[in-house]
Amino acid sequence: MADEPGHASATGPASSLPPELQAAGASPDDRTAAAAAHILGPLFSFVGPLVFYLVKRNSGSRFLLFHIRQAIWYQAVLLGALAVLIVPLVPLLSMAAPEGGEPHIACAGILADVAVFFVLGLAAIAYAVYGAVRVGSGKDFEYAWIGRWLR
Fold first, then answer.
1. 8 A C-beta contact, residue 28 and residue 63
2. Please, which residues bridge with residue 13 across strands?
3. 55 vs 45, 49, 50, 118, CA distance in Å?
């Protein structure tokens, strides 16, 4: 875990973030606002962080804008992934119709899809909260893949 971006090692900080994106150089207000952006995602999907971005886009803080953009893209990607999980439900629901099909197979497929949907949703919320706590406490954080892409 010490080799991951944003995590400290035994010899000191191991952040691969540029200095202007590191939490150590950000003001307490920017860290609090960045944490709020991460929390807005689970509450309002990508719309909450997007509205927050529109309000704060002229703040001048690259740190804050980086975290808001991360929250927007993380929630947008998550929404897409959850939408992909809904697609298999359409044929499964038609198979479960009383007029034909295999209702037992359909029910098993529906339950499996709903379980994956539920677990993915909980994991996504936990990851966003983890990011909010790290940023709010003055530690660096970036979402896997998204953070590097947005630098």
1. no
2. 8
3. 17, 10, 9, 32
3 inside domain = no
3-state helix, strand, coil in the chain (%, to 5): 70, 5, 30
pLDDT at 101: 59
Tell which residue, 145, 149, 136, has the closest CA to residue 64: 136
**pLDDT tens by residue, 103-134:** 677 777 788 888 988 999 999 999 999 999 99
Tally the domains of the chain: 1
Structural domain contains residue 2? no
Domain span at 41? 8-150
> At 51, phi and psi to the nearest 5?
-65, -40
Residues in the chain: 151
